[in-house]
Amino acid sequence: MKNIENVESLLNVELSLLQNNLFDLPDNMRSLHETRIIIYKSCLQILETNPRPEYLYSEITRIQKRLLKIDSDYKHFNPVNRNLSEAQKRSKYNKMYNVTNLKLQLRVMIFLYVDDNALS
């Protein structure tokens, strides 16, 4: 499991990279660094509460189940405006259930839960 010092150092690296190369980076790389910064800040907020690994694991499974349920219920979704393309319908459905936020929460929880030493 990650600790506050690890995440703070990662956050500082990303912030310095973004500040030093602000005008040199292409948009997709800038967006990648901004997303990492958002994830690291979310991690710090969670780590300040001193979560147990069991809690992180239960949150990971809860969010995964929720995303699977949302995805499986999509076939029953009938928007009022029937002239929407399939992509527009999916986008509207995902916004209705705040799927983007759930996916971000899942990424943060997995990032915190995975032990870097176990991967080596």
Class by helix and strand content? Answer: mainly alpha
Spell the H/E element sequence: HHHHHH
Number of E strands: 0
Shape: flat
Helix percentage range: over 70%
Approximately how much beta-strand content do the residues carry? Answer: under 5%
Major sheet summary line: none
Overall pLDDT confidence: 88
In terms of per-residue confidence, which ranges show pLDDT below 50 for 5 or more consecutive residues?
A: none
How many domains make up the coordinates? 2
Termini Cα gap: 14 Å
Radius of gyration: 18 Å
- Note the total helix count: 6
Descriptive overview:
This protein is an all-alpha fold and 120 residues long. Helices cover 73% and strands 0% of the residues. The chain has 6 helices and no strands. Helix 1 (4-20) runs antiparallel to helix 2 and helix 3 (53-72) runs antiparallel to helix 5. The relative contact order is 0.13.
Question: Which tags fit this structure?
Answer:
single chain; 120 residues; mainly alpha; 6 helices; flat
Helices and strands in order:
Layout: H1 4-20, H2 27-47, H3 53-72, H4 86-96, H5 99-113, H6 116-119
Summarize the structure.
With 120 residues, the protein is mainly alpha-helical.
